[in-house]
Design brief:
mainly alpha; Fumarase C, Chain B, domain 1; Fumarase C, Chain A, domain 2; Ribonucleotide Reductase Protein R1, domain 1; 3 domains; two-stranded antiparallel ribbon
């Protein structure tokens, strides 16, 4: 069945029909950001060809208006083919060409025959190849999402810093290998999370620098074959103006067409952020576990019922959602790494799934980081439980080891157990330390200072 746009005309050409037949998957359809970027690339090429005299106004005007409709989302329903496809993206590029040409013919008065016909290859794809159009659009789409991600990472960092200040005097057991270690403050733990996210924010801020070089103008293999030199030197500047992004032409267009290692590098930084999100989410799940027989050190906002059979059960669904998204990112990194290594000679035929994986990871991280910021902002400390656990035998004896030494502390622990008393009570009662000195040793002030 033909796909029609909102004005009723079919925009499906042979390439579009063949793509639907050859790649029968309902998954992996193009992200709107990629379709938007493809229209921006086509507009840059169209404007450059028109200003250099390679396209007449009779073709330029309708095509420009057709692309404007595409940028407004009016042609989105035509792009329903999976990006898991062969051909290095030729099908996707031709679908854009056919959609623009079909829409332009409609705007031009419905004439699809004769000299005035607007052709998807001869006009819309003039001086282009799939091999420079699709990678360029992929980077434009990625830059758009990176700018959004940078803002959300900052939002998460600031949420963690607010908790750092809020919890700065809340003492709790530190833990290594799931066993109680020296005491720490809840604020100091959140300060470490904030520092990790701050590093991620800095790394994410550098991604545009890595993505800004595009191979537009290189045509099929980066040599600029069949494209005029004036067009090659001008088309990237046109795209820069259209997008508002700091885009530049690759110094070596053959390299830009042949190699995809930059996408692996960029995704590696996203994978590092995913690892941070998994770590923080896991800690939040542990610290909120219980509520009665787990750690129970913090309380997460209740956002939905946790069970269809157990009344009152509430699960940490936001940290779990964040972890699930981050795990998908780590899986995508394996895919990108393998796909990048499978490029052959002048082109990587799997560049399109690399673009899809990169955009998917950016989209997942946007959602995950935003939700984790909400989770952090709405978390609270269980001060009642922490006031008890921070004076448990295991915590007090670790602190006293600094006062009396390792062997004497072990002796105190043994003697308190024999006496049937808590360590804190035993050392004060035995006159080993005063209550005031013990309170100081367990105070946030003492715990937060570096060294002794």
């Amino acid at each position: 069945m033909a796909i029609e746009n909102k004005d009723g005309e079919s925009l499906m050409g042979d390439f579009s029909r063949q793509a639907r037949e050859n790649f029968p998957l309902s998954r992996g359809k193009p992200f709107p950001e990629l379709i938007h970027a493809l229209f921006q690339v086509k507009l840059a090429c169209l404007e450059t060809n028109f200003h250099l005299g390679f396209l007449p106004e009779s073709v330029f005007g309708p095509c420009r208006n057709a692309i404007a409709d595409g940028l407004d989302g009016k042609l989105d329903e035509n792009f329903d083919v999976t990006l898991y496809q062969g051909g290095a993206g030729t099908s996707l590029n031709m679908m854009v060409n056919e959609a623009v040409a079909g829409r332009a013919v409609h705007l031009y008065g419905g004439r699809a025959e004769g000299e005035s016909a607007i052709h998807p290859i001869l006009h819309v794809n003039l001086h282009q190849s799939t091999n420079d159009v699709v990678p360029t659009a992929g980077r434009v789409a990625a830059i758009f999402l990176v700018y959004r991600l940078e803002k959300v990472v900052l939002m998460l960092q600031e949420a963690l810093q607010r908790k750092e200040r809020q919890f700065e005097e809340v003492v709790k057991p530190g833990r290594t290998q799931f066993q109680e270690a020296f005491p720490i403050t809840l604020g100091r733990e959140f300060s470490a999370y904030a520092s990790a996210v701050a590093r991620d924010r800095w790394r994410v801020s550098k991604l545009v620098e890595r993505l800004r070089e595009v191979n537009l103008g290189g045509t099929a293999i980066g040599t600029g074959a069949l494209a005029p030199a004036k067009y090659i030197f001008r088309v990237v500047e046109s795209l820069k103006h259209i997008t508002g992004f700091p885009i530049a032409r690759c110094e070596n267009l053959v390299d830009g067409t042949q190699n995809t290692d930059v996408l692996v590098e960029v995704h590696g930084i996203l994978t590092a952020f995913a690892a941070t999100l998994i770590k923080i989410s896991g800690d939040l799940r542990l610290m909120s576990s219980g509520p009665e027989h787990g750690f129970g050190e913090i309380r997460l906002k209740k956002v939905q019922a946790g069970s269809s059979i157990m009344p009152g059960k509430v699960n940490p669904v936001i940290p779990e959602f964040v972890t699930a998204c981050a795990l998908r990112v780590t899986a995508n990194h394996q895919m990108l790494t393998t796909a990048a290594s499978m490029g052959s000679l002048e082109l990587n035929p799997f560049g399109l799934i690399m673009i899809h994986g990169l955009l998917e990871s950016l989209t997942f991280l946007l959602a995950a980081a935003g939700q984790l910021a909400f989770c952090v902002d709405t978390a609270s400390a269980n001060t009642e439980k922490l006031s008890v656990s921070s004076r448990s035998d295991s915590i007090v004896i670790h602190v006293l080891a600094g006062r009396f030494g390792y062997e004497k502390a072990e002796e105190i622990l043994h003697d308190a157990a024999v006496a049937g008393e808590k360590v804190a009570e035993y050392v004060v009662k035995s006159g080993l330390v005063s209550k005031g000195e013990l309170d100081y040793l367990l105070s946030p002030e003492n715990i937060l200072k570096l060294g002794f």
